[in-house]
Design goal:
By secondary structure, this protein is α/β, with parallel strands linked by helices. The chain has two domains: 86 residues, no CATH class; 173 residues, P-loop containing nucleotide triphosphate hydrolases (Rossmann fold), CATH 3.40.50. It is 50% helix and 12% strand. The protein has a five-stranded parallel β-sheet, with helices on both faces. The protein has a two-stranded antiparallel sheet with strand order 2-3. Strand 2 and strand 3 form a beta hairpin.
């Protein structure tokens, strides 16, 4: 029997003939699915990396509830601007670097994470000023243009004095190296920058709000029909299915993608070969069971 695979992009149609095991494996691989707000965030980041060096480099705070896809956005941006090797100098320039802010304002651990991430030499016995100097030199040496700091809300974990020290550290990196800093965190990250007037003016806030029943959300959900190698078209734009996804996920991107992946796996195993409202219902029941 000839299959109608017109719902799949040409590049994926052959995969629809793979074994169930191979197709399930492909469903479970994390795939980038763009949507309007994420694409706008990437555009903002691109605007920043194209900014010529100046005394007041633009900075950004990307924030939203846990699971809204902030990390996927910045990792996508990092892949868009990979390291480049300079044959003459033998140095690998790194336009974008992602580092995680330590749990609690801790300068020493922050500098160590930068040095470790860049593969730069350091000693755990160095004083804090030596670690700072080494980290700043390493960032300059590999020509980092945008430093992305994840878990930015951890700034709030320390005392008022520790918070001021950490905020001054962020300012000095941006000012001394003339690079852009992007803070990434939960909604609480907004409070972290509110504590300092200069930081508040420097960091443009960019939110990733929870999903609601919008055309953008329907487009986002429908896009999964083009990355899952199912042999039949799924009714991913139907209102009942969309509402069930929103109800079960509370509008959080992570659970939405998890529900769709579970439903796709079940569609392959059951030979239904498409995602429908019943499949999402079953996936939601499984998720609820796993977390209770």
């Amino acid at each position: 029997m000839t299959l109608d695979l017109s719902h799949l992009p040409t590049s994926l149609r052959e995969r629809a003939f793979d074994s169930n095991q191979d197709r399930i494996r492909q469903v479970k691989v994390a795939n980038w699915v763009g949507y309007m707000r994420a694409n706008r965030a990437l555009e903002r980041l691109d605007e920043m990396i194209e900014q010529p060096s100046c005394a007041r480099m633009p900075c950004l705070l990307l924030y939203g509830a846990s699971g809204m896809g902030k990390t996927m956005i910045v990792e996508k941006f990092e892949r868009m601007h990979p390291p480049r090797h300079d044959r003459k100098s033998g140095i690998e320039s790194r336009p974008v670097m992602i580092v995680q802010f330590p749990s609690g304002p801790d300068e020493r651990r922050f500098f160590v994470r930068i040095l470790h991430g860049l593969g730069a030499p350091y000693s755990a016995y160095w004083r804090i000023d030596a670690l700072e100097r080494a980290a700043m030199n390493a960032l300059a040496l590999v020509h980092v243009q945008i430093l992305i700091v994840e878990e930015f809300q951890q700034l709030l974990a320390g005392s008022a004095r520790e918070q001021r020290i950490s905020l001054n550290l962020i300012k000095s990196i941006a000012n001394d190296l003339r690079i852009s800093v992007v803070g990434v965190g939960t909604d609480e990250a907004r409070y972290a920058i509110e504590a300092d007037k200069q930081i508040r003016r420097r960091f443009d806030p960019f939110s990733l709000p929870r999903w609601t029943e919008t055309e953008d959300f329907r487009d986002f959900v429908s896009a999964f029909g083009k990355i899952f190698p199912l042999r039949k078209a799924s009714s991913l734009g139907e209102r009942g299915l969309v509402q069930r996804l929103l109800q079960a996920s509370e509008g959080i991107t992570g659970p939405v993608t998890r529900l769709l992946s579970l439903a796709a796996v079940e569609a392959i195993r059951s030979s239904s070969e498409c995602i429908d409202e019943a499949g999402v219902d079953l996936a939601a029941t499984r998720l609820e069971r796993d977390f209770t």
